[in-house]
Amino acid sequence: MAYLKLQNINKIYPNGFHAVHDFNLEMEKGEFIVFVGPSGCGKSTTLRMIAGLEDISNGDFLIDGKRANEMGPRERGIAMVFQSYALYPQMTVYDNIAFGLTLQGADEEYIEERVKNTARILGLTDYLDRLPRALSGGQRQRVAIGRAIIRKVGIFLMDEPLSNLDAKQRVTMRSEITQIHRETGTTTIYVTHDQTEAMTMADRIVVMKDGYVQQVGTPYDLYFNPANVFVAGFIGEPPMNFTRGKVKEGCIAMGGELMLNLQPKLQDKLSSYEGKEIVFAYRPEAIVLGKQENAYNIDAKVELTEMLGDNTNVYVKIGEEQAILKVDPHDTPEMDSMFSYSIPYDNVYLFDGKTELVIK
User: Fold this and answer.
1) DSSP state for residue 262 in the 8-state scheme
2) Nearest alpha-carbon partner for 158 in 167, 166, 148, 171
3) Which stretches of 15-138 are assigned E, i.e. beta strand?
4) Cα–Cα distance between 158 and 44 in angstroms, integer?
5) Which residues are paired to 104 by β-bridges?
């Protein structure tokens, strides 16, 4: 039996706005699940329904087999870390971390033992006497996490906890949160709009758009087997390249003079798409410079290059279409030059032009 189960969960506000549609998910104990999607997709609303901070309009939420819809936040055994840290400025780090246990009336010796152990896990041992204003953003976030994990709850919820940190701090805190999860083994749901956080931290990812779940899977599944155009474009940096075209006599006609011959094994499979629109897609790093066999070969013009150290992003124009390629910095083509690249057949994704679902 799944530890957490969300079954046909909906959130409809009094004004009629339908924020979350038929959300379904089962989580095993100890899993690290990330909800990811653009702003307004319903991920934070879903998290707040799990926490008991929002009422569930329809559907069932079960914790270890027990219906929890009507349970209060404290009854659910949940701790939550917010985007804003929400620390008490007049309290020391020690008192902030201990706050939950103090409210419960725990013994002082037990509190001291738990605070010191939590501080050790979070690297805060030398800061227990300081006030929050004397800490960096990353340290404050660790205090907020400490206040949550000290209570030994069954479910740990995090709502965009790294969005207030700078880029370097976010990278550090990603690895620290992952390590904390390994040490505590607490079932964790983490909300973010940053697909890099999702890919690097999650056991499984839930991709959302406009209140609907688009796909649930491991980072590997979402990257290499996207269910639709949205997931394919949202996961990955730079994003996947998409070109719309029509199937025409064994070819894909993609505007202007750009026409690619379909690989032989696809010609029969796509015969039902004759005259219909499909989406031809490939990732920026899935290309090979020069022309190859068993690949789609394309001639392009370089419009812009971005040297990033370990790779170079090359923005190209192919007839009327544009694309981004990721190449070795030593092989970067010259600005405004014409060059050829190929996309191996196995690196190409095709999507239905109308439904935008992947064509298996």
Assistant:
1) P
2) 148
3) 18-27, 32-36, 58-63, 66-67, 78-81
4) 9
5) none
Question: How many DSSP H helices and E strands does the chain contain?
Answer: 9, 20
* Mean pLDDT within 222-226: 97
Q: Which pLDDT belongs to residue 329?
A: 93
Per-residue pLDDT of 120-174, as tens digits, reads 888 899 999 999 999 988 888 889 888 888 877 889 999 988 887 788 878 888 8
**Domain definitions of the chain by residue range:** 4-234, 241-352
360 CB burial (10 A radius; 0-12, 13-18, 19+): exposed
Quick one: 4-234 is in which CATH superfamily?
Answer: P-loop containing nucleotide triphosphate hydrolases (3.40.50.300)
Beta bridge partners of 23: 9
- In the block, residue with structure tokens 């929400």: 86
Strands (E), the chain: 4-12, 18-27, 32-36, 58-63, 66-67, 78-81, 155-159, 187-192, 204-209, 212-217, 241-248, 251-253, 259-261, 277-282, 288-289, 295-307, 312-318, 321-327, 338-344, 348-352
Q: How many C-beta atoms lie closer than 10 Å to residue 67's C-beta? A: 12
The predicted pLDDT at position 256 comes to: 66
Yes or no: domain 241-352 corresponds to CATH 2.40.50.140: yes
d(CA 91, CA 107) in angstroms, rounded, equals 19
| Residue 295: predicted pLDDT | 93
Two structure tokens written together for 47 = 């998290």
Place 58 in a pLDDT band, splitting at 50, 70 and 90.
very high
- Closest Cα partner for 133 from 85, 80, 83? 85
Strands 155-159 and 78-81: parallel
**Matching CATH topology for 4-234 and 241-352?**
no
Kindly report, residue by residue over 86-123, the tens digit of the pLDDT. 889 999 999 999 988 888 888 899 999 999 988 888 88
